[in-house]
Amino acid sequence: MATNIKLETGGSVWKLHVSEGEEVKAGQELFILEVMKMEVPYEAPCDGKISELHIAEGDAVQEDLVALVID
User: Fold this and answer.
1) Are strands 48-53 and 23-24 parallel, antiparallel or unpaired?
2) Which CATH number belongs to the domain containing residue 43 in this structure?
3) Across-strand partners of 3?
4) Which ranges of the chain have pLDDT less than 50?
5) How far apart are CA 9 and CA 51, in angstroms?
6) Contact in structure between 18 and 70 (CB atoms under 8 Å)
7) How many other CB atoms sit within 10 Å of the CB of residue 14?
8) How far is residue 31's CA from residue 43's CA, in Å, rounded to a whole number?
9) Residue 34's domain spans which residues?
10) Nearest CA among 55, 66, 68 for reference residue 14
11) What 3-state class would DSSP assign to 28?
């Protein structure tokens, strides 16, 4: 079952730690979003593989965007 990682707020993608096709473990940091000069890390909620990646470093992103999908 696919797990969508949805952004809780808008900001800028500061650092991307994964790539499409990469295996991840629950708790692994996926990316860091910069929001009003604060770093907001996003972690994998489950083990799986990154099947879709919709963000890149430097992207300006909006709230509720699906950043990536873990299968």
Assistant:
1) antiparallel
2) 2.40.50.100
3) 70
4) none
5) 22
6) no
7) 16
8) 7
9) 3-70
10) 55
11) coil
Tokens at 44, concatenated: 């994998």
Q: What is the mean pLDDT of the chain?
A: 97
Tokens 């096709």 appear where?
21
- Identify which of 41, 34, 57, 42 has the alpha carbon closest to the alpha carbon of residue 4: 42
| β-sheet bridge partners, residue 4 | 69
Among positive and negative, which fits the CA dihedral 19, 59, 15, 45?
negative
Contact 34, 58 (CB under 8 A): no
Place of tokens 């994998």: 44
Rounded distance between C-alpha atoms, residue 71 and residue 17, angstroms? 17
- Phi and psi at 2, nearest 5°, equal -75, 140
Return the structure tokens found at 66: 């699906």
pTM to 2 decimal places? 0.94
Quote the number of domains for the chain.
1
